[in-house]
Amino acid sequence: MSDSSPSQSTDARTRLLSHFDTNPSDHNERWSELWDAGTFLPWDRGTPNPALTDTLSQQHDLLGDSSIVDSHSGVKRRKRALVPGCGKGYDALLLASFGYDAYGLEVSASAVKMAEEVAKEKGKGYGVRDEGAGRGAVRYIVGDFFRDEWLRELNIGEKFELIYDYTFLCALPPPMRPAWALRMSQLLAPSPKSNLICLEFPTYKAPSTGGPPFGLSPEVYIEHLSHPGEEIPYDEEGKVKEDQLRRVSEGGLERVAHWQPERTHEIGKGTDWVSIWRHR
């Protein structure tokens, strides 16, 4: 999982497979156990993925400004960005440096505490990228992505203009993918300039080898985000079955861009993809 030697990465994957060899309904608790212990966090690389940095800095025409005129109040405000499974919160700090109000969501109170400590110690190191936009706010919150309690606690509305998924989908057991896609569709604001950014990882990993991280292909994102909440067929090897003739479902998202990043973490070089999704 970490950018280390192949043997160390293999050991980490083996430990994760053993730790999560349990009912999927117990996975939130199992993640919390790892965060509470704080001694085995192989997914933590200490920085945002450079592919996100490059996307935010180089794709302004695609993503739009970090501010928006609120459709209800008519007042200009910062766009809200959500990072589910934010870990120690590096991505939220990066998004705030680009002018977004960023919200990091974690199932573990220990993870949120660590993220707050990182923000306090290193937050100013994430320099403002646009003086005109300034720096957005950062807030971390404990909650289950699939439930609404954390939204009510935030009290900022129920939609986000930007959502970022890097190692969140690959951490979920495959049966949870329909719910993941439906929740993304529900949380993403309808504005044409609202975007779901997916850094697709690990595409190099065979789905049959289990997880987390569970192997993903670009086709997994296409099938599930085009048909949120619906069951998608897979073959016996765990590969998604594409149906080119199947119509996009109501609420389905559209992929508006897809590319391989020039920069990414070492473990994903040559195999990671970036995709941008919007409501149709």
Describe this structure in words.
- By secondary structure, this protein is an alpha/beta fold.
- Helices cover 31% and strands 16% of the residues.
- It has helices spanning 6-19, 27-37, 50-58, 60-63, 90-97, 109-122, 149-154, 177-187, 218-226; strands at residues 67-69, 76-78, 80-84, 101-106, 138-142, 162-165, 195-200, 253-259, 273-279.
- Strand 4 (101-106), helix 6 (109-122) and strand 5 (138-142) form a beta-alpha-beta unit.
- Helix 8 (177-187) crosses helix 9.
- The longest helix is centred in the N-terminal third of the chain and has 14 residues, at 6-19.
- The protein is globular, with a radius of gyration of 18 Å.
Put the structure in a nutshell.
With 280 residues, the chain is α/β, with parallel strands linked by helices. The protein has helices at residues 6-19, 27-37, 50-58, 60-63, 90-97, 109-122, 149-154, 177-187, 218-226; strands spanning 67-69, 76-78, 80-84, 101-106, 138-142, 162-165, 195-200, 253-259, 273-279.
List the helices and strands and how they pair.
Elements: H1 6-19, H2 27-37, H3 50-58, H4 60-63, E1 67-69, E2 76-78, E3 80-84, H5 90-97, E4 101-106, H6 109-122, E5 138-142, H7 149-154, E6 162-165, H8 177-187, E7 195-200, H9 218-226, E8 253-259, E9 273-279
Parallel strand pairs: 3-4, 3-6, 4-5, 6-7
Antiparallel strand pairs: 1-2, 7-9, 8-9
